[in-house]
From TrEMBL:
Keywords: Aminopeptidase, Hydrolase, Manganese, Protease. The keyword Hydrolase applies. It comes from the Bacteria. InterPro entries: Leucine_aapep/pepB, Macro_dom-like, Peptidase_M17_C. This is M17 family metallopeptidase. Residues 169-469 form the Cytosol aminopeptidase domain. Belongs to the peptidase M17 family. The keyword Hydrolase applies.
Length: 476
């Protein structure tokens, strides 16, 4: 879907989208279309309501969209995503979005990004004849008095495009999205958008001493890939670090999963978040330096798989007792975090990972678990998430939980083996490899990266974290 601004409305023919805030007495109609009126008994702008009207004089279709009284960003975005996702027959060659004076930049950003997100479809391997709509031929015109509207519209389009890339990476099957695929994606995206990419394969990772990372992938024939991306801005005053868990499929290893394995293609949701974020910040040329690490492996099962009770080394030089081979994400993150901090020393570090069922048990599917001892970073992450509807909420990082990860034989064990505090103890494990970095946060997106919604009949990607990180990086 292409976007542009327009000043003239008279000659437009097609779908005209008119959003309204709720008004219990009478909605305020757009002055550009005085002849288009609807009874308040039929439409009052209530949240999640619509009203369709056809102008027989010129064949224009007017779609009234109710936003409610004080809609949040995510509510607006979902309302507009619903249009292109479920009413694609209304879009022929062009559509027109008309915003009034009281509809500011937040509404514009949410509406445009929502309409573009709604063009995403899961049917990658369906017969092409069943995918009727070619959205690249549809033009979205925007009429608005908002200053910098063209910049905001283009920014919104780029946000949606980056999130769709994360959808793509998480939703495609694991025989397509392999560690090598993600490495190739990072190289191509770097060349297209403007960041440097280096990839360490198995031999190079062995030379670097990334032993915990390699242990997880040694049961798979698919080559592990340790992806390093660097985005640099001459205007930057901060250096930010990102790490994303990239387990492209997780069988659980020899501690094989007994349920839900069909969804484990989503276990690289943290990697997708970081890769999508790198595309977005480079595309928008955000004035901040970012170094991102994405360790990518497949946790499979064969005679080379690492074993429960193995003691493995790590990039940090610290030894790890393997209690459970299904606690594998924290092992590759341990090497990713330590490598980033030791070699690049960023001012702040955030990692994203679909790490624990415990986070899902605590927050369900609407909020990610947030861990940090840095109160400034904690607040900035919460505020950024609240603004764009990607909520995070803190859990304690008290050192009393540290003893849960003590090992008799090694420096630390990878799982405490108890049915409580799973997300917290996982965070304490990761903290062990951060070199006491003063500004580090861990975000467990196990419940928010992949799930059910009205936009598909099966579980699918959400792109959680990409927009959150953009908001944060715009404000540090």
């Amino acid at each position: 879907m292409k976007t542009n601004l327009t000043d003239t409305l008279e000659a437009f023919r097609g779908l005209i989208i008119l959003p309204f805030f709720e008004n219990e007495s009478e909605i305020q109609y757009n002055e550009n279309f005085p002849h288009i009126q609807v009874s308040k008994n039929l439409f009052s702008g209530k949240k999640d309501t619509q009203f369709l009207l056809e102008d027989r004089n010129n064949s224009n279709i007017f779609l009234f969209v109710g936003l409610g009284k004080e809609p949040e960003f995510k509510d607006i975005q979902t309302a507009f995503r619903r249009i292109s996702a479920k009413q694609e027959n209304l879009f022929e060659k062009q559509a027109l979005l008309v915003l009034t004076n009281e509809m500011g930049s937040t509404l514009l950003e949410a509406a445009v990004s929502g309409l573009i997100l709604g063009t995403y479809r899961l049917g990658y391997y369906k017969n092409p004849e069943s995918l009727v709509k070619d959205w690249s031929t549809i033009n979205l015109s925007i009429h608005t008095p908002i200053e910098n509207a063209d910049f905001l519209a283009q920014k919104s389009r780029k946000i949606a495009e980056a999130k769709i890339e994360t959808f793509y990476m998480v939703d495609l099957p694991p025989n397509k999205i392999t560690p090598s695929f993600l490495a190739d994606w990072a190289i191509k995206a770097g060349k297209k958008y403007g960041f440097d990419t280096k990839v360490l394969d198995r031999k190079k990772a062995e030379k670097e001493g990334l032993h915990a990372f390699l242990a997880v992938g040694q049961g798979s024939q698919k080559e592990p890939q340790f992806i390093i991306m660097e985005y640099r801005s001459k205007a930057s005053k901060k250096h930010f670090g990102l790490v994303g868990k990239g387990v492209t499929f997780d069988t659980g290893g020899l501690n094989i999963k007994t349920q839900g394995m069909v969804h484990m293609k989503c276990d690289m949701g943290g990697a997708a978040t970081v890769l999508g974020t790198m595309q977005l910040i480079a595309d928008l040329q955000i004035p901040v330096n970012v170094t991102a690490i994405v360790p990518c492996v497949e946790n499979s099962v064969d005679n080379q798989s690492y074993l429960p009770s193995d003691v493995i080394s790590s990039y940090s030089g610290k030894s790890i007792e393997v209690i459970d081979t299904d606690a594998e994400g924290r092992l590759i993150l341990a090497d990713g975090l330590n490598y980033l901090i030791k070699n690049y020393n960023p001012d702040s570090v955030v990692d994203f990972a679909t790490l624990t069922g415990s986070a899902v048990g605590t927050f369900g599917y609407e909020c990610a678990a947030l861990f940090s001892k840095n109160q400034d970073l904690l607040k900035l992450l919460q505020d950024s998430g609240n603004h764009v509807g990607e909520r995070v909420w803190p859990l304690p990082m008290w050192d009393i939980y540290k003893s849960e990860m003590d090992s008799e034989i090694a420096d630390i064990k990878n799982y405490h083996g108890k049915p409580f505090a799973g997300a917290i103890t996982a965070a304490k494990f990761l903290e062990f490899f951060t070199e006491n970095h003063p500004s580090w946060a861990h975000i467990d997106i196990a419940g928010t990266a992949f799930g059910d919604s009205e936009f598909a009949k099966t579980k699918h990607a959400t792109g959680f974290g990409v927009h959150l990180m953009l908001k944060l990086l715009e404000n540090i």
